[in-house]
C-alpha cells in the first residue's frame, strides 16, 4: 500500500490508523496546492480528485476519501477492533460519527486555512464550531473515546481535526471533556509516531 499525504492534513488520520494496526506502507508527500508529489509527478495522475488522503492498494486500485480509507484499513486487521464488524448497529454508529466529522467539523475548521480568510471570518468559523463542541462535550463526558472505551478509526479522524485547534487558535478549554480527549489522543504512541514521521513533532 502507498499513502499519499500532506503533513498535518486530514491524511494524518489514515497515517495514524496504519500505525495503530502495525501495517507497513509507503508514504508519498504531496503539496496540496500544486498537487506536486515530493518524489516527482502530479497527484492527479493517481487520483483525479487531486486530494489527500489517497491510498493506492497493492493491486494498483486507488481509494479516496478519508472516512472510507480508514474503514478499509481497519477491516484489514479486524482483530485490532478499530471498527465494529459489518452488519451490526455499532458499525453504523461508527459511520455516523465519521460522517459527522467529515461534514460538520472538517469543513468548518478547514475554512480557517483558506488564504483569503480574515480574522473576522475565522472568528465566525469558531462561533460555528462552538455548538458542535457542545455536542462532543456531551458525548465524551462519560467515556474515553467517541465509541466508548476503545479507540476506533473515528477517533483517528476526530483527533486529527482537533489538532487544527492549535494553528487556528481555537481554544478547547471551555470544553473540559473534549480537552481531555484531545490530550489522550496526542499521547497515543501511534499518533506520536505519525506526527513525528510527518515532521510535526521532533
What does the secondary structure layout of this molecule look like, with pairings?
Blueprint: E1 2-5, H1 12-21, E2 26-29, E3 54-56, E4 62-64, H2 66-76, H3 89-110, H4 119-140, H5 153-162, H6 176-187, H7 189-197
Parallel strand pairs: 1-2
Antiparallel strand pairs: 1-3, 3-4
Helix pairs in contact: 1-2, 1-5, 1-7, 2-5, 3-4, 3-5, 4-6, 5-6
Question: Which labels suit this protein?
Answer:
202 residues, 7% strand, Glutaredoxin, 48% helix, alpha+beta, globular, four-stranded mixed β-sheet, 4 strands, 7 helices, Glutathione S-transferase Yfyf (Class Pi), Chain A, domain 2
> What is the molecular shape?
globular
Distance between termini?
26 Å
Strand arrangement, largest sheet?
A: 2-1-3-4
The CATH architecture designation of the largest domain is: Up-down Bundle
Structural domain count = 2
What would the CATH topology of the largest domain be? Answer: Glutathione S-transferase Yfyf (Class Pi), Chain A, domain 2
Bin the helical content: 40-55%
Helices, by number, come to 7
Note down, in words, how this protein is organized.
This protein folds into two domains: 2-80 and 191-197, Glutaredoxin; 89-188, Glutathione S-transferase Yfyf (Class Pi), Chain A, domain 2. The chain has seven helices and four strands. The two termini are 26 Å apart. The protein is α+β, with helices and mostly antiparallel strands. Helix 1 packs parallel to helix 2 and helix 4 (119-140) crosses helix 6. Strands 2-1-3-4 form a four-stranded mixed β-sheet, with helices on one face.
Amino acid at each position: 500500500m502507498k499513502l499519499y499525504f500532506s503533513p498535518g492534513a486530514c491524511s494524518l488520520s489514515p497515517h495514524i490508523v496504519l500505525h495503530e494496526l502495525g501495517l507497513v506502507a509507503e508514504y508519498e508527500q504531496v503539496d496540496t496546492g500544486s498537487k506536486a508529489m515530493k518524489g516527482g509527478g502530479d497527484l492527479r495522475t493517481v487520483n483525479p480528485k487531486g486530494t489527500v488522503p489517497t491510498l493506492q492498494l497493492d493491486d494498483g486500485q486507488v481509494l479516496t476519501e478519508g472516512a472510507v480509507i480508514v474503514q478499509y484499513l481497519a477491516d484489514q486487521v479486524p482483530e485490532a477492533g478499530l471498527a465494529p464488524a459489518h452488519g451490526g448497529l455499532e458499525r453504523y454508529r461508527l459511520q455516523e460519527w465519521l460522517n459527522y466529522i467529515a461534514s460538520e467539523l472538517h469543513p468548518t475548521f478547514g475554512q480557517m486555512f483558506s488564504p483569503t480568510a480574515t480574522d473576522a471570518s475565522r472568528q465566525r468559523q469558531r462561533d460555528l464550531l462552538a455548538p458542535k463542541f457542545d455536542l462532543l462535550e456531551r458525548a465524551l463526558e462519560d467515556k474515553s473515546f467517541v465509541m466508548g472505551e476503545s479507540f476506533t478509526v473515528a477517533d483517528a479522524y476526530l483527533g486529527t481535526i482537533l489538532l487544527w485547534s492549535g494553528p487556528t487558535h481555537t481554544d478547547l478549554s471551555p470544553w473540559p471533556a473534549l480537552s481531555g480527549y484531545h490530550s489522550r489522543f496526542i499521547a497515543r504512541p501511534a499518533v506520536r509516531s505519525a506526527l513525528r514521521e510527518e515532521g510535526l513533532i521532533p
